[in-house]
Amino acid sequence: MPYLSDDELKASLAIWRERFPGEVRRTRESADRHAEGYFSPAHSMAAGREIHLGSPVDWKLNPTGDPEFTWLVNRFSHAVDFGRAWALSGDEKYVRAFTAQVRGWRTQNPVDFDTPYGEAVFFQRPGPWRLLETGLRAESWLLALQLMKDSPAMDDAFREELRTALAEHADYLCRFLGSADINHAMMHMLGPLLVGLELQDHPRAPWWRQVASERFELCLRRQVNEEGVHSELTPLYHNLSLLLFARYRQAAVKSALPIPRGYDERLRAMASFTEATIRQDGLTSAFADGDPNDSGRTTLAFLGACLDDESISRKGTGDPEILWFIGPDAWRRHEPFFGTAAMSPVSFVFPRTGFFSLRNGKTQVQFDAAALGGPHGHADALSFEMCSRGLPLIVDPGRFTYEEGEWRRYFKGTGAHSTITVDDANQTPYRSSQEWGKPEAECRVSCFESNAAFDYVVASHSGYLRLGDPVSVERRILFLKEEDILVIVDVLGAKGTHSFDLRFPLNRPEKTSVAVSPAVAGDGAGAGTGAGDAWAAAAEFRSNAGKRITLGMSLKRAGAFSDTAPPRFDSGWLSDRYAFKEAIPVLSWSGGFSGKAVFVSVLRVLDGDAADRDTEASSPRIDIDAGADTVTIDCRITLRYDGIEYGG
Fold first, then answer.
1. d(Cα 190, Cα 208) in Å, to the nearest integer?
2. Domain spanning 1-177: CATH 1.50.10.100
């Protein structure tokens, strides 16, 4: 088998049985339920509940209305649990279930090589023969076969049927190649690669291997830029793509296939972006179609073991699943390294991509000034996440669902994110779950400076230039590292009158408040400012260790506004995992403006120890002079420590 030899597989099973009893139980339970026809794909709207698909299984039955359900079920990932459950127990019911389900699937879903090419390669094609499912299903069948091949219940007739089915899958995937510009393409090509390595004596095996190898190299060159960032600009799918490229490398090395020149260097560059998108809580930022999850750390662990590079392994987490791909020797060698590296306090910058992870060891700001990134992108240009003291404070909302409808539109929309919305419009017009309209908002990073004292980024997007009266949008981020203060300046420019909504989604604070800012209220400084234009907001959080963390937000604006409504805590939504969502407070400042509008937000974090010592940073004094071509901001902050004030 391409990933592990039979002896390596047996040794891995022994480690797994001894070290991961919880996974052993989960596998047996999963195999038992799937043998009875019950399915609950985690990344579909059936997550958290079981759906019975009949006996025999009806592979196209979908009571959820979510196409992801049908796709996930038809990947046959549960077949690997059948194989592991048999290897653990010797119970032939798992082999019988696998045999019956594969035969039933083939009867219900015969291959059709006469499918029109455009229909076959459509990346959202309904049903079991979408290319992505075809590639992953072949891999699942092969992994299950290797685990159960010594079973007396697996007769020669079925082995020949499975061989025929695998050849059909490889032929189908090599005939209908599809796009090489999306992450799906690597999952397509796992099928012919692995089938070609397993069925060595098949006359078309060399062709399958060659096509797959060439496509993997093409995908790496087409999809990953010079900074090591995947073209879909979604951390979750960047990590998945890195995992798939590493899986190809693992199979190629095992089977003595050549590794393309520069392949490993590109994977290392991808690892840098993966590391940059990991938040202080250890989870990957959920920008675009993603959830805050552990994909970053598990991918780094896998890559470190594949490259035999402990410096990468130390940044990862030893998910037991990777044992089945790296084998017992690499696991024993790298397991002591997993999770031993502290999070880097040094900022990561990808200026050509437009992504910045600003850090000082206490606070982390993930700033997204990247392009939309295709169907998986969200209309979230210039949004950010903020973590401090190990806790996410301002967060990306996640994805929740791929099912078309109001929730898909909400989670992809500009208003769900920590950026500014104009005229209640998305930065890029929404068309459907996996399609954006035109024109697409384009981002531009015009300035970046990083040193020991501060990080400074200036970026803009074109999303609202399409309006009848075009509106320019610019965001400036200044992160003062020693002071641990984040200053955000948003500048809108137009000729006419528009509405705005500046939003900060908060990660489940215990308490929130908004008040007139005493340091600036009524000072009249700056064009168009006054008592209604300066506010102080606060959100109090509780860390996992039970410590209090307070986020202070001082807000001021300058320009011609049609109202003096204060910021308020509105309701928004957060999805930590697919198909689950909960309401969260969102600090929102909305209203109308004409001409140029400038918003200054100063964010500071106080931890429980500082608050207990009567230490506080007062609301900053913010003066704004918004001219026709320039904006001048004077921000002064006072720190009170044990009753003594220190100004700055």
1. 10
2. yes
Would you call 414 exposed, middle or buried from its count of C-beta atoms within 10 A (0-12, 13-18, 19+)?
buried
247 is written with which tokens?
């899986």
CA-based nearest residue to 298, from 281, 279, 280, 312? 312
Mean pLDDT along residues 171-188: 97
Nearest Cα to Cα of residue 314 among 294, 332, 330, 335 = 335
State the pLDDT at residue 151.
97
The 10s digit of each residue's pLDDT in 267-314 is 999 999 999 999 999 999 999 999 999 999 999 999 999 999 999 999
Q: What is the CATH number of domain 348-510+575-647?
A: 2.70.98.70
The string of DSSP codes covering 109-154 is: S---TTS-HHHHH-TT--STT-HHHHHHHHHHHHHHHHHHTT-TTS
Cα–Cα distance, 177 to 116 (Å, whole number):
13
Domain ranges of the chain: 1-177, 224-340, 348-510+575-647
Confirm if 148 and 83 have CB atoms less than 8 A apart: yes
Type of residue found at 56: P
Backbone angles phi, psi at 263, to 5 degrees: -60, -50
Tell me the pTM.
0.93
Q: How far apart are the first and last CA of the chain?
A: 66
Q: How far apart are CA 117 and CA 511, in angstroms?
A: 56
Dist CA 301 CA 313 (whole Å): 5
The C-alpha atoms of residue 619 and residue 569 are separated, in whole angstroms, by 18
Q: In 3-state terms, what secondary structure has residue 255?
A: coil
**Tokens coding 443:** 């981002």
Contacts of 29 (CB under 8 A, 6+ apart): none
DSSP string computed for 558-621: EEEES--PPPEEEEEEEEEETTEEEEEEEEEEEEEEEEEEEEEEEEEEEEHHHHHTTEEEPPPE
d(CA 172, CA 175): 5
Nearest to 555 by CA among 500, 490, 480, 648: 490
Percentage of residues of the chain with pLDDT beyond 90? 88
Helix (H, G, I), strand (E, B) or coil at 205: helix
For residue 3, give the nearest of 227, 250, 218, 220 by alpha carbon. 250
pLDDT for res 271: 99
Give tens-digit pLDDT for 95-154: 999 999 999 999 999 999 999 999 999 999 999 999 999 999 999 999 999 999 999 999
Please say if the pLDDT value at position 185 is more than 70. yes
User: Looking at this protein, which amino acid is placed at residue 423?
Assistant: D
Could you give the CA distance from residue 379 to residue 426 in angstroms, rounded to a whole number? 6
Please determine, for residue 618, whether its predicted confidence score (pLDDT) is greater than 90. no
With H, G, I as helix, E, B as strand and everything else as coil, classify residue 430: strand
What is the SS3 assignment for 68? helix
Residue 415 gets which letter from DSSP? G
Count of beta carbons in the 10 Å neighbourhood of residue 431: 11
Distance CA 589, CA 456 (A): 24
Instruction: With H, G, I as helix, E, B as strand and everything else as coil, classify residue 524.
Output: coil
Q: What's residue 626's pLDDT? A: 64
